[in-house]
Amino acid sequence: MLRATLHEIAARPMAYVAELLQFVVLVGAAGLVARRPVTKRLAARRERITAELTEAERNEHESVAFSDEARAVVTRAEAEARGIVEAAHAEAEREREAGTARAQAEAEHALQVAREAVEREKARVAAETSGRLVTLTTEITRRYLDEFLTEDERRAMTEKVVLESLEEMGRR
User: Fold this and answer.
1) Domain of residue 30, residue span
2) Label partner for 79 (CA 20 to 30 A): which of 2, 131, 161, 172?
3) Do the domain assignments include residue 153?
């Protein structure tokens, strides 16, 4: 086959050169036409990925800041609780002479109120942090799935998760 092709080229070299030039011009024109949309798509994708990464970093910073704030709130609540406990002990000491039973009851009550306040604050902070974390995780997962899975793959995965959830609910 190679020999036949070489023989054909040798027989009509100008026709071969003309065909080669036509091919080069056609490939060049196709490259110019296709380059602009592909370049625009790649630039748009790059911008979208950059924006998503920036958003994820911002969300991470917010999460860290929120976590730091939560620790500060817990620390303040514990300090407040210690202050309340100390005040309750001082009150109990003053009233011990008048009635140790009454002072002991008040101290226990103050301690319980402080613990409940700390627990409520911890629960509120944990719930808020959990909600933000779930939202962030859900958003990142959705973006990841949208980026890498086809519509059919996403539909199949959703059906699988729904069925597993229904089975899990049925076991409870």
Assistant:
1) 1-51
2) 131
3) no
